[in-house]
Every structure is written in structure tokens, then in C-alpha cells.
Automatic annotation (TrEMBL):
Keywords: Cell membrane, Membrane, Transmembrane, Transmembrane helix. The keyword Transmembrane helix applies. This is TMM8B protein. The keyword Phosphoprotein does not apply.
Length: 764
């Protein structure tokens, strides 16, 4: 055949260490129909500071592949919530072959058409809290590329028609496809009139949705006469591919005929004309009465086969022959993103008669609904059993309804199909099923009631069970509980939801408490982070005693908002918020930086030089507010104003040193007992904050940070000299001019006014 090659690529993205599904990078691809091979080229490279990261460590990268919906991954091997079905996916781990670049290849032969999703992440790290901008971070960028090769002009088989084919010696196989419509109960493929070789050396393979593989359903025509391959309960509204393959080593040309027969359950035989069923056959609750005013057991009049009121049936093969049951649709009610309820007409109570199943269809929209969680809940009305030992079984299958034809055993699996089983009885009257990231399309729920006997399950007699059925789509499982947050994420134009757990809880629904923080630990950590701010009380007292009222106000502001910010920032249930989280965080960061600013400006002693020193305080508040608004966690946006304040202090101290021709402050006691200890304490606090703090030790390391910063302020805050009471008012020269008074005690930076004599010099 003729092959066409298509190329698809995605923009490189930065990978993150795995913490939850919210930390992965998701890529969305679409594979066209008739694709025979898909090749993903997985490119990964390192970057550091805008250049290639040759010095970055090699970290393995895990990539997951899944068709139809995102992969449900569990690299940390945590526990899933109860009643949760985990669909499978492919996984691939990339290793580094070059210092800064590696490439991996993932081939899929005859992939399923439609949506494919790739998820990639780095391994979990130690949880170090790094300061943004402190050093050049190693970035691992991942870029997937897709190359598909598809066949064009594949021969189409029409049901009931015979297709002639001759296979030349240089050809090994012939590929066909046939479309299977809805309500098809069986597909039968047959090879006829095989000529040109002895014994018809052909293989017949059939597969749904994509060309057959080596492990697809196959039949050796040399060993089976006639060469017929049947597929019961085929997928509806899909292409089925038929591959006729020649045995290796067979010379010459082989001619044969291929035909396909489809069994349509929606067309009953003439002996059983279609009719409008009663309320029992429509599986309506008894409280709604009968349809069309007919009593239960009455025979309604027959209608024409083309009657629009005729229910849509499905096929169930049993030992009594082929039977058809109606499929009841559901009403879709969209409340929000991934918040959809599926209502049943004349529901939510459903009657399950003893002699037939009740079948419902749930339609999930392509792409839009695959990023949530499909929830199905069954609740049995025990009073409707009339004392019988009845069990209601439910089979949830994708794209085709499945009901067991064997009355002695109930299963939701066949050779080609696999579904999810639910069951309720008088002992366990409630059953739930959750499917994260379900595949889109039609999901069929088949309910059947059986009675338990000594020989197994058998059909019940005269007992109609009533079941409460609830089906809905939610963003996350149980909204991630009290120890998680359900986040709505986006990759390009695709939306999906995932839980982000806290307080040591893990798992897909934040239900794994293997590493969870106890309530006592949460309370202790909250008290440590909040009460450590009480260390600001001594600096406030020192500032008030030295008449630094503005500085004292800033320290009180910092102490207040830091306390309540950390009370609101806790990951567990010991949380107390007096304002919005963002407001508390901004005020905490602003107060911390303003404390540094006003302390350094006070140390510079600019009042005798700059008459309006409050201008610098106002300027600092505006600059810090702007920096926090730009990037609250950026290093230089926060460090810049602090360095500017230190520069002002250094210029002021240098000017005094040059003018007085000795070091300022001039006393060794000030350096030994105040400045050096305060600087060392502040440096230790910065080192702890920048290099030691991790997610595990955050509670006590950050509390120590509070204690050290507040303690350093108490040491670094300069004293303010009190004027001597023995001095009278200074004489003032009459006329125009001004007086500049210099207090030598203040120049020396002394604490006690009695240490040195006061010599005030006034000049005009």
C-alpha cells in the first residue's frame, strides 16, 4: 500500500521532581486512523544559566504513555483510595548518554487512533527549599516528537459482499477494514475459495480500531475448514481491520475471497415483532406505574419496525438464543469544569427485573471529560427483595455493553473485553467505583439480579430488585479530602485535575497516611512558628526605650503579621487565618524587609545630616512594596533594597570616620558587645535560611530563623543619647541665619550619658 508520514512536535518544557500528579508535565498528541507505526523521539537536555548544563548531575527521567486519557501513575507506590480502578499505561525510563543531552525512542506498532498522552517527571528529591536566584539552577528540559506512518486507500469490506483478491508471490499480506455500526452483536469474517496452494496456507487476523498485531485474534486457514473467525460483542462505531497473511515460504500466487457478516440485534425476527415495552421491560420503578397506561403483564399492541418509540436494544447471547434488551440513555447536566451529573429518566431508582438486565449508557465527551474522575454508585433498596437472597451485579464496560450469558457465574470479562464489576446485596447494600482519567466515549452499565443458591447464582423468580443509581464526573476523588487540594491544571488547550497533598499525606486522593503528620506534631509546628515571633518583644522594648518609635512600630507590625501568616500557612488542619492568605504573606514579607531597612537606616544615624530622615523610611517602604509585587520570592528584588540601605550606612560611617580621623563607632565595646555579635547572629540566620532549610526541617529551622533575626535587631539597634538636664538653653544669635548643633556623645555612639562629658558646639 501507499504510506504517508506525518510529523508532530511539542515545545520543550522544564521537568520537576515528582511530588504529586500536579508536578508532572503532560503532553497531548493525536494519532490518525490507519496508522501502522508511531515513533516517539524523546529529547532531553540540561540547561544552567542559559547555557548547556554539563556540570549538572544526571537524573533519570520517567515517561508514561497512554491512549485515550492521561496515565494514572504511582511512582511512590502509595495507596489508592478504596473502590478506585487503576488503568494501566506504558512506562519508559531515560538515561543519559551525553553530558548534557540524551535521546530515547519509543515505538508503537499499529497504535490505537485518537488521543495519546505523555507524562514525564524527575525522581523525587530531598525537598530542599532553595532561595530563588541564589545560584544557577539546573534545568532539565523535555521535548517529545512524534512520527507516524499510516496507510492510505485501505480496501473496505462491505457486509454481505464478497471481495476477490489475488496475492502475488512478492506480497505477504492483504489488509482490509470494515465499519461496525452500533447494536452489532457479532462480526464474522470468512475466507472462501482459496486457490493456488495446497491447504490454503493463510493466516486470518482481526483487530478493532487498528491493524492487527502478531498477538491479535488469529486463525490458521490450513487447519480450519471453513476458515471463519468470529468476534462476539464487537466495539460499536469503530473500524475492524482484517489481515490475510500468507505463510512464509509459500511460492506462487494465491487467490481467495473475503466476506464479512454482521449480526444486527436491533432487527428481530418476524416471529417476534418489535413492540413498545411496558414499564417492567423499560426497567422503571414501580412507583411510576406502567408506560402508556398498560398494567404490568399486559401485552401492548405491536408497532411497526420503523416506529421512533422503539427502544434501542442490545444483544446478549445465552443458551436460550439471542435476546435484545433496551439501552436507557442518561441526561447530561454540566455544573462546572469536570463537574457533570448523569441523570436517568424516571430515576434515580432503577428496577432490575429477574429475567432481563437493565442497561444504561453514559457518554463522555472527547478530550473534555478525560481529565476528571468517573464515579458510579449503586445502593440496593433491601425492602424490595421480599426476603429473598438477591444479589445485583453491575458491569461497567467501555464502548460496548456486556452482560453475562451464563446464569451460574457473573463476570465482566471475555476474551476481548474487560470491564469493572459492582455488586450489592442485603449484607452489602452499597457499592462504589471510581475511575480516574476515564477514556472518553460511551460507557455501558449493565445491571442484573441473581439469587444465591447452594449451586451458585441462578435467576430469581418474581423478585424485582430496586437500586438507586448515581453516576457523575468529578475533578478529584472526594475533593482530595481535608489534607489535599484539588487543582485544575492546563497543558496547552487540555484541562485536567489532580490532588496536591499536604501534612505528609500522599496518594491519588490524599488518603495514604503512612508518612502523615500527627495532630500533635501539627500543633507543635504551628506553635513553634508562631510563638518564635515573640522574640521581637525585646527589640520593641529597646526601640521604645531609645525613643525609636517608628522602628518599634515596624517591629510590632512584623511580629503581628508573621505570627498570623504562619498560623495560616500550615499544611494540616491546625490552621487559623484572619485575612486572605496572599494579604498575610505580603504583609509578612514587607514587615521582615522593612525591619532590616529601618534598623540599618537607624544605625547610619542620618538625623543630624539629613533633616528629613523620614524620607528614606518612606522611600524604603515604596521600593520594598514594588519589589515584593514584582517577585515575592526573587533574591535580588529582596536583597537589592537591603544592600542599598547598607550602602547608605557605609557612606555615613565612612564620612564620619574621615571627618573625625578615627574609626566610627570609635569605642571597642560597641564593636565587641553589640555590632559583631549582632552581625554574626544575622549572618547565621541568613545561612540557615538559604542553605539548611528543607521541607522536613522547615518547622524548627524557620523558627530558629525568627529567633536569630529578632535577636540580631536587639544587638544592632543603636542607642540614642539623652540630653543633659544641667545644660541650659543655648544662646541664639539674633538676625538671619541658623544653628547647627553637634552632640559629641551621639557621634561617639555611647550608651550612657555619664561616660563622656557633653560638649555641644553651636555655630552659625
Amino acid at each position: 500500500g501507499l504510506f504517508v508520514t506525518d510529523y508532530f512536535t511539542r515545545t520543550p518544557r522544564k521537568l520537576s521532581p515528582f511530588r504529586s500528579f500536579a508536578s508532572i508535565e503532560l503532553f497531548h498528541f493525536h494519532i490518525p486512523e490507519d496508522t501502522v507505526i508511531a515513533v516517539w523521539n524523546l529529547i532531553t537536555f540540561k540547561e544552567q544559566g542559559g547555557t548547556f548544563g554539563d556540570q549538572c548531575p544526571d537524573r533519570s527521567i520517567t515517561v508514561y504513555f497512554r491512549s485515550g486519557a492521561p496515565s494514572v501513575i504511582n511512582p511512590l507506590h502509595t495507596h489508592f483510595p478504596r473502590d478506585t480502578a487503576v488503568p494501566g499505561s506504558f512506562a519508559l525510563t531515560l538515561t543519559w548518554t551525553l553530558p548534557n543531552r540524551t535521546t530515547g525512542v519509543f515505538n508503537v506498532t499499529s497504535p490505537l487512533p485518537g488521543d495519546w498522552f505523555l507524562a514525564a517527571h524527575l525522581p523525587k528529591d530531598e525537598g530542599k527549599i532553595s532561595v530563588k536566584g541564589l545560584y544557577e539552577e539546573c534545568q532539565y528540559l523535555f521535548q517529545p516528537q512524534l512520527i507516524v506512518q499510516r496507510l492510505v486507500n485501505i480496501a473496505v469490506l462491505y457486509p454481505g459482499h464478497v471481495t476477490e483478491q489475488s496475492m502475488a508471490p512478492h506480497n505477504r499480506s492483504c489488509l482490509y477494514k470494515v465499519f461496525v455500526p452500533s447494536y452489532t452483536s457479532r462480526v464474522l469474517v470468512e475466507v472462501l475459495r482459496c486457490r493456488g496452494a495446497e491447504g490454503c496456507p493463510l493466516w486470518l487476523r482481526v483487530r478493532a480500531k487498528a491493524p492487527p498485531l502478531h498477538n491479535s485474534t488469529a486463525l490458521d486457514c490450513r487447519e480450519h475448514t471453513p476458515c471463519q473467525l468470529a468476534q462476539d460483542l464487537p466495539f460499536w462505531q469503530h473500524w475492524y481491520y482484517v489481515l490475510v497473511e500468507k505463510h512464509p515460504g509459500v511460492p506462487g500466487t494465491i487467490s481467495f475471497q473475503v466476506t464479512v457478516q454482521l449480526t444486527d440485534c436491533s432487527r428481530p425476527s418476524l416471529a417476534r415483532p418489535p413492540f413498545l415495552p411496558s414499564s417492567a421491560s423499560m426497567n422503571m420503578p414501580h412507583s411510576f406505574g406502567s408506560a402508556g397506561g398498560l398494567a404490568l403483564g399486559d401485552s401492548p399492541p405491536p408497532t411497526s419496525p420503523n416506529d421512533t418509540k422503539h427502544p434501542v436494544p442490545i444483544s446478549v447471547t445465552s443458551h436460550t438464543g439471542e435476546q435484545c434488551w433496551p439501552v436507557r440513555p442518561t441526561l447530561r447536566n454540566e455544573l462546572d469544569t469536570f463537574s457533570v451529573h448523569f441523570y436517568i429518566f424516571f430515576g434515580p431508582n432503577v428496577s432490575v427485573p429477574p429475567d432481563r438486565p437493565a442497561v444504561f449508557v453514559i457518554n463522555l465527551l472527547p478530550v473534555l471529560d478525560s481529565g476528571g474522575v468517573l464515579n458510579v454508585e449503586l445502593r440496593l433498596n433491601v425492602s424490595s427483595l421480599c426476603g429473598e437472597n438477591v444479589t445485583v451485579f453491575g458491569c461497567l464496560n467501555h464502548e460496548v455493553p456486556l452482560t453475562s450469558g451464563d446464569n451460574t457465574s457473573v463476570t465482566c470479562e471475555t476474551e476481548s473485553l474487560a470491564g469493572f464489576l459492582l455488586s450489592v446485596n442485603a449484607t452489602a447494600s452499597l457499592s462504589r467505583l471510581r475511575i480516574p482519567y476515564p477514556q472518553t466515549g460511551s460507557w455501558y452499565l449493565s445491571l442484573r439480579s441473581l439469587c444465591a443458591t447452594e449451586h451458585g447464582f441462578e435467576p430469581c423468580t418474581n423478585v424485582t430488585a430496586e437500586v438507586y443509581l448515581r453516576a457523575y464526573l468529578s475533578p478529584c476523588i472526594n475533593d482530595c479530602g481535608i489534607y489535599g487540594q484539588c487543582k485544575l491544571l492546563r497543558t496547552n488547550n487540555y484541562l485536567y485535575a489532580a490532588c496536591e497533598c499536604k501534612a505528609g499525606w500522599n496518594g491519588w486522593g490524599c488518603t495514604d497516611n503512612a508518612e502523615a503528620f500527627s495532630y500533635g506534631f501539627q500543633l507543635l509546628s504551628t506553635l513553634l512558628l508562631c510563638l518564635s515571633n515573640v522574640m521581637f518583644v525585646p527589640p520593641v522594648a529597646i526601640a521604645v526605650r531609645s525613643h525609636y518609635l517608628l522602628e518599634a512600630a515596624v517591629y510590632i507590625f512584623t511580629m503581628f503579621f508573621s505570627t498570623f501568616y504562619h498560623a495560616c500557612d500550615q499544611p494540616g488542619i491546625v490552621v487559623f487565618c484572619i485575612m486572605e492568605y496572599d494579604v498575610l504573606q505580603f504583609c509578612d514579607f514587607l514587615g521582615s524587609l522593612m525591619s532590616v531597612w529601618v534598623t540599618v537606616i537607624a544605625m547610619a544615624r542620618l538625623q543630624p545630616i539629613v533633616k528629613q530622615a523620614s524620607v528614606l523610611y518612606l522611600l524604603g517602604a515604596m521600593l520594598l512594596s514594588m519589589a515584593l509585587q514584582m517577585d515575592r520570592h526573587g533574591l535580588w528584588n529582596l536583597l537589592g533594597p537591603s544592600l542599598f540601605a547598607l550602602g547608605i550606612m557605609a557612606v555615613a560611617w565612612t564620612a564620619r570616620t574621615i571627618r573625625r580621623r578615627h574609626c566610627y563607632p570609635p569605642t571597642w565595646k560597641r564593636w565587641a558587645f553589640y555590632l559583631c555579635p549582632g552581625a554574626l547572629i544575622a549572618a547565621a540566620a541568613v545561612l540557615l535560611y538559604a542553605f539548611v532549610e528543607t521541607e522536613e526541617n522547615y518547622f524548627y529551622i524557620h523558627s530558629i530563623w525568627h529567633l536569630l533575626i529578632a535577636g540580631s535587631v536587639g544587638f544592632l539597634l543603636p542607642p540614642r543619647a539623652k540630653p543633659s538636664r544641667s545644660l541650659g538653653p543655648l544662646p541664639r544669635r539674633k538676625g538671619c541665619g541658623y544653628q547647627l548643633c553637634v552632640n559629641e556623645q551621639e557621634e561617639l555612639g555611647l550608651v550612657d550619658p555619664a561616660v563622656a562629658s557633653i560638649n555641644s558646639i553651636c555655630t552659625s
